[in-house]
Predict the structure.
Amino acid sequence: MTVSEKGFSLIELIVVLTMVAIIVAFAAPSVVEWRQNANYNNISYRFIGLLRHARSQAIASKREHRVEFEVTAGRYRLTRGDRAVGSTVYNSVVQDWVDLASPLAIRANNDCLGTADINFTFASDGTGTSDGASNAVCVMEDPLDGSPLIARSRISLTSTVTGRVVMDKP
């Protein structure tokens, strides 16, 4: 009479666990990088959404709306102006300051090197403008080790006539 053994031997179990460990070791860096990229994309889409929301609110309320970016402070907010066009006062806060979490940072200009604050203003007719020569805000990665910031995405006002906002990679 023969007895059949059911189950796995210890050697088979060790081989399978070793194979799983190797696969996990190769996949882990990719998952970490994917997660970091998801954070940068998330804030980029949040900026685009806020700019588009400011434009639609300006049209709906017939009052200018402005998205203000304090570049070196790493924060942004949404305010409402006192007129349909040419507002002089933006003291009505629609969304208060939001601080970016580390290691996120922002910069201005198309080259993503500007450190001056930037405002995007949308009029009641849907047009959009930005301060000075800058028409872009960049989402940056701060390596936190003193090395230069790394540009992850650039959000630009591509048409002042339509107020169109787009995102691209710098």
Observations:
- The chain is about 30% helix and 30% strand.
- The radius of gyration is 24 Å.
